[in-house]
Design brief:
Helices cover 36% and strands 15% of the residues. It contains 10 helices and 13 strands. It is an alpha/beta fold and 354 residues long.
Length: 354
Amino acid sequence: MSRFLRPEYGTLVPYVPGEQPKGREYIKLNTNESPFPPHPDVVKAAKEAAQGLNLYCDPDNAALTKVMADYYGVDSGCVLMTNGSDEILNFAFVAFCHAKCPALFPDVTYGFYPVFADINRVPYETIPVNDDMSINPEDYYGAGKTIFIANPNAPTGIFLERDRIEEIIKRNPDNVVVVDEAYIDFGGESCVPLTKEYDNLLVTQTFSKSRSMAGARLGMGIANEKIIQDLNTVKFSLNPYNVNSMTGAAGIAAMKNSGYYEQNCRVIIENRDYATRQLRKLGFEVNNSLANFVFAKHKSISGEDIYLKLREKGVLVRHFTPDKIKDYNRISIGTRDQMEALIRALEEITEETK
């Protein structure tokens, strides 16, 4: 680091994205991307929007916001479009966390949460997940802090039922509860309807997973209008033109072709169930996931060994180093061909280590 860096950032540990390989061709099951391309209309809309790149994009994202509000049955003032869901999560740390109101989230969850807290210089606390990696809602009752819950959780894939999330919201009436629904379209029940009942709930979602737009960077938040006003204050203070013209046009086209993406999600769910069955046959312990990935550990082979041996065989999965989850690997769900190739590679690995 240079001698000019702010001293308090000298110990900052940044978020580490999943490996983006260059050179060798891999079966890429490490970053929870969709294996399916965007709908052709999405590509067409982005190309057409590129003709106007000499002009600034709409800072209010009015057209896209209206489409999303109509789709979810809320008012436009209750929706904020952002540069990926990471941006609105960061906005929430800026707006709702401070010295007297720390952030609170599970100890096993999305790795960006502690980074957002550290970069914004706000304190945070973590609550251990249960031995089975599930979240105990009662641990969050009356917390007196800004709560962040990824649902389904990452990297575990475990889903917390909506009525149990609602109880957390009820038990924290004076604090914001952020429900990060990046993976909600793969079998879970969204908390978006609860935003009409509770003024302390913010639900975030992304186009990266179920809508095949990871490279476009598009996310959103849905909440009570006053919460969205707070977040807009942060947005217009940091990045008013946060969703570019091509991404905005692509997002509208994606929503007009929702049936295509819903079918893709059904295929992912089928492939997830197939992969889970096959992994268990090979001696893996696999969480019951409602995401587009599974979280698995083998009874006798370390998580790191499996990750490295798979990499040698041309298959990338995501391995984490914290002690609590170091024996696990997170495996994104791809096409059936990709999952069959994964299983063949793991059959070889388990046979080699006998």
